[in-house]
């Protein structure tokens, strides 16, 4: 399988561990990542707030790059997935398409609308398939209770994003079960992490994120896992603020989606960049059955 | 021929503010045809099992907006949610009052905040007193003008969006999805003469607290799509007033951030939104993050073809960058 790899800004900057883990997982599963140094930022929802048509246009440009290469796009961020998909949706409106084409044409860019935008979660669960993935699992995540945390833009609006359900998805939980982990169902799994207003009103943003972590904790999760690096920032890098905002101690390791997959496929913590998290993942790894400990972690404790 | 029935286990939230007892869930089982609305099931319980069950309802036809409640954690109208798919998916139906509004009794909530927020956006046409509409004369709008707010008049004020909203839950200063969608309707109405004042006011009264999680759009039974109307309001507010609040500064700052390089500069964004003093406030958190992720201080390389992005901006973006 060959896909145009759209890492998004965060995975190239503060969330490099996500890029590392993605490359590991794709290598193991035979997914060829074709890289394009001319992909731009997706606008992260903020450009959409400031100028809807501009946001569609910069993403039409991104999609045209993959289209010229005859590839579908692989995203590893719920927000990138949402914004690139939204461009495909909005371009069906002839008024929007006219303005976007008018801006792209002088640059020699044409986007015909043929590219499908696929998040890694979809590639793993639908294109690779859970049975094939399961066959590759070397260290099942037995003993680990994981609360999936989807990220809004992967799911909603469901009719535009083409998601299984805007409020009751189960692809991520199915994936976790295939990896041998125990998925934890909790209300917060489809809620907001607070990130979009982290810069607007940090206390409120942190309260929103903190509530979801508390919810996962109350349902017995040893760790959370997210397909979105912006949720990861909120839940991991800002977890100290979240704890303050909900007035409750929090110590919740948060994995990126390809990190949990990578662990099950036999990666070392170094290969997944686990040391880059602000909340240590050691307490989660300690829950793994002895045979499932990642290689270097086993060497450390043994 | 009658449809085969299914066994429907119901767990209904019971609470009476007057009796001092803690809330509890009462379990029932009914045999119902799968297409039976949850509201019909509740009315059957009340008629045949427990006459003390309190709930709001009226039309039973998804028009009055009275019977919103949480059905297996989703904010829905009980009259148009069939029992079958819920039982199939969850094995039971947990019925709880709407969220974000204090419970008075069982499934009945106090809607004071919801209606107060609605009133605060002044949901009526504001005309210019110096130029009153001529009596008995039509005040026509073009089909295109009406098209701009075609979704919002469908709203039945059921408050499902208010119940589903995490910003309402986390911040008393957020007006809620319906109030903002209604405000949008008057902002784009060409007959309204208070557009600019409305936009200026809402920028400081909660507009930018929307998390754009789109939970309201999922919950809305009439496809008003409040989250998309809120997005529209944000763009209109920036166009009318520029980036004056933290929220609009962040949106415009982000837009400007990628204009020339095509890629986000995380550190620069913090400065654009918070200003220099705000950035100083962020230093302790920044240091914590930098220790684990030292590259946050590095300036990212511009993408190949950054000039194309800049030209797209020149063609489509006329809003002012923040001062």
Task: Describe it.
The complex is a heterodimer of chains A (302) and B (323). By secondary structure, chain A is α/β, with parallel strands linked by helices. Chain A has 17 helices and 8 strands. Chain A has helices spanning 9-12, 16-29, 46-50, 52-68, 78-90, 94-104, 120-136, 152-155, 158-161, 171-178, 202-218, 229-237, 239-246, 257-264, 269-272, 282-285, 295-301, and strands at residues 2-6, 32-35, 73-75, 117-119, 145-148, 182-184, 223-226, 254-256. In chain A, helix 2 (16-29) crosses helix 14 and helix 11 (202-218) crosses helix 13. The radius of gyration of chain A is 19 Å and the shape is globular. Chain B is an alpha+beta fold. Chain B has helices at residues 38-48, 83-90, 112-120, 143-147, 160-164, 166-170, 177-187, 195-204, 215-219, 226-241, 246-259, 266-281, 283-292, 306-316; strands at residues 6-14, 24-32, 68-71, 74-77, 93-96, 103-105, 108-109. In chain B, strands 2-1-5-3-4 form a 5-stranded mixed sheet. Chain B has a two-stranded antiparallel sheet with strand order 6-7. In chain B, a hairpin with a 2-residue loop joins strand 6 and strand 7 (108-109). In chain B, helix 7 packs across helix 10 (226-241) and helix 8 (195-204) packs across helix 10. The longest helix of chain B is centred in the C-terminal third of the chain and has 16 residues, at 226-241. Chain B starts with 5 loop residues before the first strand and ends in a 7-residue tail after the last helix. In chain B, 39% of the residues are buried. The mean pLDDT of chain B is 93. At the A-B interface, helix 1, helix 3, helix 4, helix 6 and helix 11 of A face helix 6, helix 9, helix 10, helix 11 and helix 12 of B.
Radius of gyration of chain A: 19 Å
Shape of chain B: globular
SSE-based structural type of chain A = alpha/beta
Q: What is the number of E strands of chain A?
A: 8
Beta-strand portion of chain B reads 5-15%
Number of strands of chain B: 7
Q: Which stretches of chain A of 5+ consecutive residues score pLDDT under 50?
A: none
- CA-to-CA gap between the ends of chain A? 38 Å
Mean of all residue-level pLDDT scores of chain B: 93
Task: Please give the count of helices of chain B.
Answer: 14
Most extensive protein-chain contact, per-chain counts: A-B, 65 and 67 residues
- Low-confidence sequence ranges of chain B: none
Order of strands, widest sheet of chain B: 2-1-5-3-4
Shape of chain A: globular
- Largest beta sheet of chain B, briefly? 5 strands, mixed
What pattern of helices and strands is seen along the backbone of chain A?
EHHEHHEHHEHEHHHEHEHHEHHHH
Fraction of helical residues of chain A: 40-55%
- Strand content of chain A is 5-15%
The end-to-end distance of chain B, rounded to whole angstroms, is 71 Å
Largest sheet of chain A: 4 strands, parallel
């Amino acid at each position: 399988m060959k896909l145009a790899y759209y890492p998004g800004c965060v995975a190239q900057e503060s969330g490099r561990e996500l890029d590392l883990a993605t490359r590991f997982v794709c290598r193991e599963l035979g997914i060829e990542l074709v890289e394009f140094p001319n992909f731009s930022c997706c606008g992260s929802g903020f450009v959409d707030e400031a100028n809807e048509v501009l946001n569609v246009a910069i993403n039409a440009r991104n999609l045209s790059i993959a289209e010229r290469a005859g590839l579908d796009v692989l995203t590893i961020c719920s927000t990138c997935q949402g914004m690139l998909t939204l461009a495909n949706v909005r371009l069906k409106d002839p008024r929007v398409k006219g303005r976007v084409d008018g801006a792209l044409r002088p640059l020699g860019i044409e986007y015909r609308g043929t590219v499908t935008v696929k998040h890694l979660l979809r590639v793993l669960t639908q294109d690779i398939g859970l049975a094939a993935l399961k066959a590759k699992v070397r260290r099942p995540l037995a003993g680990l209770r994981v609360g999936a945390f989807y990220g809004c833009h992967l799911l909603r609006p469901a009719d535009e994003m083409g998601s299984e359900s805007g409020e009751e998805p189960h692809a991520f939980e199915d994936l976790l079960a295939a990896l041998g982990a125990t998925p934890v169902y909790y209300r917060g799994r489809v809620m907001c992490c607070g990130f979009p207003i982290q810069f607007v009103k940090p206390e409120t943003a942190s309260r929103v994120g903190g509530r979801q972590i508390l919810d996962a904790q109350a349902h017995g999760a040893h760790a959370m896992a997210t397909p979105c690096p912006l949720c990861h920032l909120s839940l991991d890098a800002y977890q100290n603020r979240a704890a303050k905002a909900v007035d409750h101690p929090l110590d919740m390791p948060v994995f990126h989606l390809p990190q949990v997959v990578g662990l099950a496929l036999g990666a070392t913590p170094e290969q997944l960049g686990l040391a880059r998290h602000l909340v240590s993942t050691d307490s989660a790894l300690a829950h793994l059955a002895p045979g499932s400990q990642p290689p270097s972690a086993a060497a450390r404790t043994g | 021929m009658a449809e085969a029935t299914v066994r429907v286990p119901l767990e209904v939230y019971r609470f009476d503010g007057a009796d001092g007892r803690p809330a509890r869930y009462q379990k029932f089982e009914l045999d119902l045809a799968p297409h039976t609305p949850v509201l019909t099931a509740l009315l059957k319980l009340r008629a045949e099992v427990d006459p003390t069950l309190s709930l709001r309802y009226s039309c039973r036809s998804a028009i009055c907006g009275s019977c919103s409640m949480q059905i297996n954690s989703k904010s829905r109208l009980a009259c148009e949610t069939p029992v079958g798919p819920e039982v199939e998916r969850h094995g039971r139906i947990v019925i709880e009052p709407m969220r974000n509004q204090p419970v008075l009794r069982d499934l009945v909530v106090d809607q004071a905040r919801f209606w107060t927020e609605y009133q605060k956006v002044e949901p009526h046409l504001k005309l210019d007193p110096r130029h009153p509409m001529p009596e008995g004369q039509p005040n026509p709008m073009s089909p295109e003008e009406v098209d701009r707010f075609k979704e919002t008049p469908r709203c039945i004020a059921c408050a499902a969006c208010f119940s589903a909203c995490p910003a309402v839950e986390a911040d008393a200063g957020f007006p809620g999805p319906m109030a903002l969608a209604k405000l949008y309707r008057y902002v784009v109405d060409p007959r309204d003469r208070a557009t600019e004042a409305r936009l200026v006011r809402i920028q400081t009264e909660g507009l930018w607290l929307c998390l754009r999680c789109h939970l309201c759009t999922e919950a809305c039974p009439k496809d008003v799509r409040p989250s998309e109307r809120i997005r529209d309001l944000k763009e209109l507010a920036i166009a009318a007033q520029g980036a004056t609040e933290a929220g609009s500064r962040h949106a415009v700052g982000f837009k400007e951030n990628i204009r020339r390089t095509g890629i986000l500069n995380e550190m620069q964004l913090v400065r654009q939104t918070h200003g220099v003093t705000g950035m100083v406030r962020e230093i302790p958190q920044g240091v914590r993050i930098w220790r684990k992720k030292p590259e946050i201080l590095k300036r990212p390389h511009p993408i190949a073809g950054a000039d194309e992005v800049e030209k797209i901006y020149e063609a489509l973006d006329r809003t002012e960058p923040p001062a």
